[in-house]
Protein: Acetyl-CoA hydrolase
Organism: Rhodococcus wratislaviensis
Amino acid sequence: QSSRIRNSVFLQKVTVAEEAVKVIGHGDTVAVSGFASAGTPKAIIPALVGRIHAARAAGSNFTIDLLTGASVSTETERMLAEVDGIALRMPYQAESTARQKINAGRMDYVDIHLSHVAQQVWEGYYGPVDVAVVEVAGITETGELIPSASVGNNKTWLDVAEKVILEVNSWVPDAMDGIHDIYYGTALPPHRRPIELTDVEDRIGQPHYRVDPGKVIAVVETNAPDSASPLTAPDAVSEAIAAHVLEFFDNEVRRGRLPENTLLPLQAGIGNVANAVLGGLDRGPYRGLTCYSEVIQDGMLHLIKHGTVRFASATALALSEAGIAELTSNIDFYREHIRLRPQEISNHPEVVRRLGIIAMNGMLEADIYGNVNSTHVMGTKIMNGIGGSGDFARNGYLSMFLSPSTAKNGAISSIVPMTPHVDHTEHDTQVVVTEQGLADLRGLSPRRRSRVIIERCAHPEFRPLLTDYVERAQAAPGAAGHTPHLLGEAFSFHQRYLATGTMRTFH
Ligand code: 0RQ
C-alpha cells in the first residue's frame, strides 16, 4: 500500500476495483471526477465496463446516468459508449463514439453551461446521485482529500453522493498539493453570499476536499498517468486569426479600453486557434498577463515560464505528454503560478463579470448578425457541447468568437445567413474573427453588423452570396424589419450542403 493514504479509517477501506464497482447497479446515477484529459478515474470505469459486459452476456440490461465535470478521457468516454453503458450523459463530451450514439438517439445528452452543473445537481434536477467516483492524489492524516489534476465538480459529487469510491492515484506528483483552492461557500438561494474573489490568484477556500468517511465504501489505489491532450502546431489559418486578435488588443490598449502590458484576464477555449493566440502573446509586448479560464494547456505553461503570464486560474490541466513532463518536473515553480478551482468558481458569472474576462472561444458558425452556433453541425447533429463558452461569453468584458472562415475544404462557410442552432445570441457576441479579418460588432445595429461581418470575416468566395441574400432581405417589400431575413431562404446554405455536399453554388 502506498503512503498516500495517511488515515487509518480510509486505509481499512482499501480494496480492488472489481470489488468496489459492485456497489454500482443498473439505473444508478454515477458522478465521476474528470475534466478534459485530467483526473478521470483510471480503475473503476474499466471494471464497470467489465460488469456491464457480464450483465449483457447474462441477458440483462445495465446502464448508468453519467455526470462529470466536462469531457473525461477519450478512452473512458469511448469504452462506456461502446458497451452502450450510458443512458444519460451530462454536461459535455467530445468523443466520436459517444457523439454517434447521441446523434442516433441512443444516448440522452443534456448539454448545459458548465457553471450550472453543480447547482442543478444540488437543486435535484437529476435526482439523487447514487455513487461518486473521484480520483484524488492522497488522503491526509485528518481524512481530507488532496485533489489531483482537475477539480471540476468533485467537491459537489463528494457532498451529494450517497456512496463514494475514491481512487488514490500515486502518479499525481506529491508536490501538486497546495495548487488547489476548494471553495465551500456556495449555497442555494436565498442563502447565497458574494464570492469574494477579486484577483485571479486569490485564495478563497481550502487546499483539500472534505468527505464524510461514513459514505466512502471503497478506496482503490492506482498509479496511472492522465491521458495526454493532443497538440498540433498552429497552421497558417490559426496564425492569421491570432494575428487579427493581437492587432485588436493593440488597438484597444491605444484607445484606453484595455490596460497596457497586462490587458485583462484571458480565457481561451481548447484547440489550435487558442494555442496560436497564446503563442502570439509571447511574442508581443505583454508582461504579467493573467488568465482566468477552464483549462491550462501547454501554451499557458510556456507563457508562465517566460513571465508573460503572471498567474493562471483554471479548473483543470489539459496537457500533452510533453506538457505533463514539463509540469511534473517543475511542479514547485508552477504551483506558485497556477490555481485550480471548482468549475462553479472558474466559470462563475459573478466572478467572470467582476474580473472583466477577455473571452475567446471557437465556434462552428456565426450568422450575419452575430448569432453563434458552437454545438450543432447543420443545426441538428451535436459536435461537443456548449461547455464553458456561454459562461464566459455572456459575462466577459470582451466576448470574441474565433473560427476559420470555411470548413471541410471550403465546402462550408462559417458565416451563414441564419444559424440553424443558437448557443450565443447576437447580444452575447461582440467580436467575430476569422483568418479573413476581425468584425468589431460593438455599438452596431443589426444592419451594420451584417455588413461588417460579411466584409471582414466571410471567405471571399461566399461574400457575394451573403451580400446578395442580405440585400434582397433588406429590400423585401414591407417585410425587412430591424433584422432583415428571407425566412424561406434563411437556411438555404445548409440545405444546399445537405443536398449537394457543398454550400457553394460555384466550382
Ligand atoms: O471537424 O476535424 O472532422 O474536419 O468541426 O473544427 O476548426 O478544428 O475548430 O477544434 O476549435 O472546434 C466549435 C467544435 C470548434 C469547439 C468547436 C468541423 C471541422 C472540424 C473542429 P473535422 P476546428 P475547433 C470553453 C470553451 C464549444 C465548447 C467551448 C467547441 C471540427 O470550439 O466545441 O467553446 N466549442 N468551450 O471541420 C460543420 C461547420 C463547421 C464544422 C467546423 N460550420 N459545419 N462542421 N467544423 N466548422 C473551454 C475552455 O475555456 C477551455
